[in-house]
Design the sequence.
């Protein structure tokens, strides 16, 4: 009986050890999952600062010396009290830092679309609160400002339809993944907010 | 089997024996095990349910008599139904297809270009006014240039108009209650056109024309025409009997077709009277292959070929007007005779007193037997690889790029020389000048590649100019072809400077660009490759690296003919307009098309070029016999090439207004799409007063829907790839939380038990 009791204690220590390891692993998993949102948040602060600098120098400069992207524009949505600096490029690295503008559609002009993409679970999670007729303001580094108004919100299956852009239209497209609260990433649905240009203010 | 059950029984018995003395413990254990095991089961079931939810759609997709736009596999008129289907997270509208009365298609094929005319009639058998949607799955590399729809006494005609004019017409038509429709695109290559207000029992006739660039792979041309209609609205029909006769017939044919000069083929008529309800299509094919053929057949339908060599015109084949059932796509394939040298063929069309000529240069076709002799006839190459290692390449992109390079190095032979330039903000060369691809040098290169990592900015000018002026190793052959393979995600801002750099280089190497990642700057890379007389390859997915790189490297490792020049006879033909201006090299598997416009008709055209070991030239006479009728699409191919060339002018800084007006003139004259023109279909008014009132009311109701409709057309719309826009941290976070709770429960239980034990 005594031997059995001892055995139980060693068993018990083993079990306890396992459970502590499990506990530590789970904490690590949580920490790892928080890494990207945290990075997204911190980079926002850095980018916001670099935007201020850019405003003064009027020259595109990377937010940190080794960055492969520059700030292109600042987006404001007054109703949601949301403002965000947009970076150039929609590659994974850039999107981890902020919402990005597609290279080909990254100039604020009166006859070209402007296409922005962002992660649905970090920077662009607020897109689910954007409503029809919301007003979105874009300002680029040269001080040009354009005001857009949301005219349609669509959910598109990217496997079936390519992203169709009318090259002659000065529209603003905000793209993120859908559904917003999906657990998995890599789905084919995209949430596309389209806004038409209201007016142009050049300075 | 029996043994096993015995064994397991024994085991179970043993268990009982083993555990019998510790009954007390087990009993106690069960107290604190049960909630945990319950949780375990709960999790397992939840996990399974979750998987099932993602894998199995909530609703099956088969609906009788209904289909979605994804099912369209031939020209069809669809009526919108009120029903939709829901699979998880998606909702798709269902359509009902109209009865097809008759269909006809005619193909005018000149070399690699087919001009296709499709006419179909439908009937609205419903008892209500319906809104229809005409759909046609266009083949790849094709563009619609004509559309006409006849609905009762209304007529809708599609035309290419200048954009502003099209817009005006669209608005005017909308205001006056007429129907103007613009071509829309639902899924890639699905042509759709809405037709409103189709009265009961009204007949609808649709005619569309498109020009298609045919497929050419492994020495075989192939034409595919979508016509596999999913039978609907039809009583059960008899199965076809043509499947068994097919093999027989092709066998029969190949024996007679070895020296095919002119044959009259007809597609065997299946007894149409025994299957009165079956949809049939009448086909007419005019094939002007331009070269000697080794074989022609149709894997989809049975061809009856009647040898008819005495007929005067060689190399022309026509399939008469025949009726075949629409149960599968029509495929026609023909194979030119094997030839070691490139083959030239000419196609000519006269339009408004001007001569349009296409020259098709077919790469050598090796018959399978003499494949062995090829290595001796390949060019030596002096190739520079440029690889982008900037920060935006991080992750999959750099992996893809490295994999591509590895692969490229493995294809080099001892005759070749190479160098690698890696760039971000700064650029690094592997060697000072190119070096021969000895195993030692290749090993050095592999270590160099493995050390690369993605970081820093993108400065392209320096590495590109470096590569364009790369010194050739003295060990390399004088005549080695200079090539550049440029792998990047194309995040460029100084496009213009780069284009100028390329166009201003004398003795320009062939430039091949490879775009990697979700959104490379396709425009820059396509144009750069074009100016560099190379080609652009897009790799969007890491799974495609091997296939696409293999294809590209296979291609560039064996150019068939280089330094191609044209000579017209007689020498003076007035104004000659030729596209492309600079004739690129000829590669295997890619016939080269050169389009000319001349004031007078040349009597013959001669092409010169360099093979790997000797010069090459061929002269082809352009006699009257080869002139084809106006339906050939030759002038529209020329016009497309011209528009492309004019638009390139913008890239190197020509004034916009000048280019725009030139493009519009060409586009309108030849009815070819361009960025400054729109394809618009406007209804001609032929309504009675009564009808007018009735229709106006209906139209008002629909106005809401139409108001938001955009002025868009196939070509001014630009299709891009959606970027990936989710991190997916929530799943991991949730997993972490579940694990944490589990471990905490466990821990607390252990403590409790410990406590009990010591008590």
Sequence:
């Amino acid at each position: 009986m005594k031997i059995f009791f001892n055995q139980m204690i060693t068993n018990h220590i083993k079990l306890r050890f396992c459970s502590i390891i499990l506990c530590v692993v789970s904490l690590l998993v949580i920490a790892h999952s928080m890494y990207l949102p945290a990075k997204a948040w911190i980079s926002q602060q850095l980018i916001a600062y670099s935007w201020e600098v850019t405003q003064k120098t009027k020259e595109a400069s990377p937010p940190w010396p080794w960055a492969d992207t520059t700030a292109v524009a600042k987006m404001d949505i007054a109703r949601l009290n949301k403002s965000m600096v947009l970076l150039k490029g929609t590659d994974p690295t850039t999107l981890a830092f902020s919402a990005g503008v597609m290279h080909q559609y990254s100039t604020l002009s009166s006859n070209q679309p402007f296409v922005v993409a962002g992660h649905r679970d970090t920077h662009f999670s607020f897109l689910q609160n954007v409503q029809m007729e919301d007003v979105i303001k874009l300002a680029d580094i040269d001080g040009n400002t354009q005001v857009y108004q949301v005219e349609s919100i669509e959910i598109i299956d990217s496997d079936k339809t390519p992203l169709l852009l009318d090259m002659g239209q000065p529209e603003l497209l905000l793209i993120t993944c859908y559904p917003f609260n999906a657990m998995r990433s890599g789905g084919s649905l995209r949430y596309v907010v389209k806004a038409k240009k209201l007016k142009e203010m050049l300075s | 089997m029996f043994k096993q059950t015995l064994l397991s029984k024994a085991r179970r018995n043993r268990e009982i024996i083993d555990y019998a003395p510790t009954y007390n413990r087990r009993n106690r254990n069960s107290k604190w095990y049960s909630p945990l095991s319950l949780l375990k089961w709960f999790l397992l079931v939840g996990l399974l349910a979750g998987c099932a939810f993602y894998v199995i759609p909530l609703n099956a997709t088969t609906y009788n008599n209904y289909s979605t736009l994804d099912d369209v596999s031939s020209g069809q008129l669809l009526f919108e139904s009120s029903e939709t289907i829901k699979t998880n997270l998606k909702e798709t509208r269902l359509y009902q297809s109209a009865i097809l009365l008759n269909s006809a298609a005619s193909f005018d094929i000149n070399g690699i270009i087919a001009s296709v005319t499709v006419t179909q009639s439908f009937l609205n058998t419903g008892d209500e006014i319906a809104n229809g949607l005409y759909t046609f799955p266009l083949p790849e590399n094709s563009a619609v240039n004509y559309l006409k729809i006849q609905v009762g006494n209304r007529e809708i005609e599609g035309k290419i108009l200048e954009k502003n004019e099209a817009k005006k017409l669209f608005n005017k038509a909308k205001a006056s209650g007429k129907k103007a429709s613009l071509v829309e695109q639902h899924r890639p290559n699905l042509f759709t056109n809405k037709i409103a207000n189709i009265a009961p029992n009204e007949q609808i006739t649709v005619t569309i024309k498109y020009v298609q660039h045919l497929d050419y792979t492994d020495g075989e041309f192939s034409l595919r025409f979508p016509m596999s209609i999913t039978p609907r609205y039809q009583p059960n029909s008899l199965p076809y009997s043509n499947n068994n006769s097919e093999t027989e017939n092709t066998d029969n044919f190949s024996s007679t077709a070895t020296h095919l000069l002119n044959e009259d083929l007809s597609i065997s008529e299946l007894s149409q009277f025994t299957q009165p309800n079956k949809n049939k299509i009448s086909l007419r094919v005019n094939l002007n292959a331009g070269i000697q053929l080794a074989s022609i057949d149709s894997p989809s339908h049975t061809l009856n070929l009647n040898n008819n060599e005495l007929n005067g015109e060689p190399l022309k084949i026509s399939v008469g007007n025949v009726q075949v059932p629409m149960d599968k796509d029509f495929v026609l394939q023909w194979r030119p005779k094997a030839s070691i040298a490139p083959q030239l063929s000419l196609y000519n069309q006269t339009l408004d007193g001007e001569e349009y000529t296409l020259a098709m240069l077919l790469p050598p076709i090796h018959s399978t037997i003499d494949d062995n002799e090829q290595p001796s006839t390949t060019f030596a190459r002096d190739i520079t690889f440029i690889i982008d290692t900037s920060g935006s390449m991080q992750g999959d992109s750099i992996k893809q790029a490295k994999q591509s390079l590895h692969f490229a190095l493995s294809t080099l032979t001892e005759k070749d020389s190479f160098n690698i330039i890696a760039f971000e903000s700064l650029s690094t060369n592997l060697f000072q000048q190119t070096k021969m691809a000895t195993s030692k040098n290749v090993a050095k290169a592999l270590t160099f590649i493995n050390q690369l990592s993605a970081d820093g900015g993108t400065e392209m000018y320096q590495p590109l100019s470096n590569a364009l002026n790369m010194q050739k190793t003295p060990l390399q052959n004088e005549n080695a072809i200079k090539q550049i393979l440029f792998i990047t995600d194309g995040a460029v801002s100084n496009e213009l400077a780069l284009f100028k750099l390329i166009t201003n280089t004398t003795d320009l190497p062939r430039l091949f660009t490879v775009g990697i990642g979700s959104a490379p700057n396709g425009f820059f890379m396509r144009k750069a490759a074009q100016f560099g007389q190379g080609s652009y390859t897009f790799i969007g997915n890491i799974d495609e690296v091997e296939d696409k790189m293999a294809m590209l490297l296979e291609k560039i490792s064996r150019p068939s003919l280089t330094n191609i020049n044209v000579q017209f006879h007689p020498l003076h033909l007035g104004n000659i307009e030729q596209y492309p201006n600079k004739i690129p090299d000829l590669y295997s598997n890619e016939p080269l098309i050169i389009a000319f416009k001349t004031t007078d008709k040349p009597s013959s055209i001669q092409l010169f070029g360099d093979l790997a070991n000797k010069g090459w030239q061929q002269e082809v006479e352009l006699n009257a016999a080869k002139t084809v009728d106006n339906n050939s699409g030759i002038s529209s191919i020329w016009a497309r090439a011209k528009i492309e060339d004019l638009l390139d002018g913008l890239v190197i800084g020509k004034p916009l207004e000048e280019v725009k007006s030139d493009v519009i003139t060409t586009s309108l004259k030849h009815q070819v799409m361009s960025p400054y023109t729109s394809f618009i279909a406007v209804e001609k008014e032929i309504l009675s007063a009564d009808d007018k009132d009735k229709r106006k009311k209906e139209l008002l109701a629909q106005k809401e829907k139409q108001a938001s409709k955009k002025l868009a057309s196939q070509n001014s719309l630009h299709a891009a790839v959606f970027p990936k826009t989710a991190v997916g941290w929530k799943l991991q976070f949730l997993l972490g939380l579940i694990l944490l709770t589990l471990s905490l429960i466990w821990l607390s239980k252990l403590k409790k038990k410990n406590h009990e034990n010591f008590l």
Remarks:
- Residues 515 and 538 of chain B are 5 Å apart (CA to CA).
